[in-house]
# Entry
Amino acid sequence: MYIKEVTVQNKVGLHALPASDFTRLARSFDSSIWVENGVTSISAKSLVGVLTLGIMKDAHIRIIANGQDEVNAVDALVYFVESGCSNDALLEALARFKEGRAE
# Structure
C-alpha cells in the first residue's frame, strides 16, 4: 500500500472535466486506488464517486493505492493534482508514470 497527501491546486477543484481526467488517469493503472477527503474514501476510478466528494481548491486529499503499480499510480495522480489538473498535466502524467519514466 502506498499513500500520499496532496493539496488541490485547480481553481475549480476536482469538478467536471478535472474529475473526469483524474478518474481516466486512475483507470489507466492496475492497482486499486482510492481518494480520501476527510473521513470519506471512494474509488479514484469512479467519476460519480469522485464528484460526490466535492473536492474544492485548497482541499487536502489522500491518494491511496494497493497493487503492483501502486507507486506510479499515486505519484501520477499527485503530479496531476499538483500541476493544476490540466490536459497537459494528464498527458504528462500518463507519459511519465505509465512508461516508467518516473522521476
Observations:
- The two ends are 20 Å apart (CA to CA).
- Residues 34 and 43 are 4 Å apart (CA to CA).
- Helices lie at 17-27, 47-52, 70-82, 87-98.
- DSSP finds four helices and four strands in the chain.
